[in-house]
Write a structure and sequence with these properties.
It is built from three helices and seven strands. By secondary structure, it is α+β, with helices and mostly antiparallel strands.
Length: 171
């Protein structure tokens, strides 16, 4: 029974790792080959929130994940491009030709119309403060530290496995 549960977890872990790998390759392709400003793969995109204009729902440092949607409605939180910036705000009014948005923490709606072709997607997942970790990985050399720690942990486990195997052979 224990072996079958272990096997199920190994298979699930491998499948999830495979899906993550394909997703990262897809996003990388969109970013570096297609030169996309906001990479998407299978309609999914992500971004790190930089301001508190959407407080209390979304804070600076949160990681948001968006999904493509065909039509948007009032109260949808969307990520869009305006004037060279990526913005995440809530739709407060639907017009014939676009949308009016507003940050939850802002007093007044934005003074511009957002057109459908400028929208990256609807915010579906918010991971609080995870954006700080992603930023650290990308810009603070954190990826090298993470790889080093991972290699160290792997080496320790391999050493323990080697020593326990060696002890069993000597008995």
């Amino acid at each position: 029974m224990k072996k079958s549960i272990s096997l199920v977890f190994k298979i699930l872990g491998s499948v999830l790792l495979g899906i993550l790998f394909v997703f990262v390759i897809g996003l990388s392709y969109d970013k570096f080959i297609n030169k996309s400003e906001n990479p998407k793969f299978l309609g999914v995109s992500s971004a790190i929130v930089l301001s508190n204009s959407m407080e209390d729902k979304i804070s600076a440092g949160d990681l948001i994940i968006t999904f493509d949607k065909n039509n948007y409605k009032v109260d949808d939180i969307i990520m869009y491009r305006y004037d060279g910036e990526t913005v995440t705000h809530r739709i407060v009014e639907v017009l014939e030709n676009g949308y009016i948005t507003k940050g939850d923490a802002n007093e007044f709606p934005d003074e511009y119309v957002i057109f459908e072709n400028n929208i990256f997607g609807k915010v579906n997942i918010i991971i609080p403060k995870y954006g700080y970790f992603i930023h650290w990985l990308k810009f603070e050399g954190g990826i090298f530290i993470l790889i080093g720690v991972g290699a160290l942990i792997f080496s320790v486990f391999m050493l323990i496995k080697y020593l326990t195997t060696k002890n069993k052979e000597n008995e």
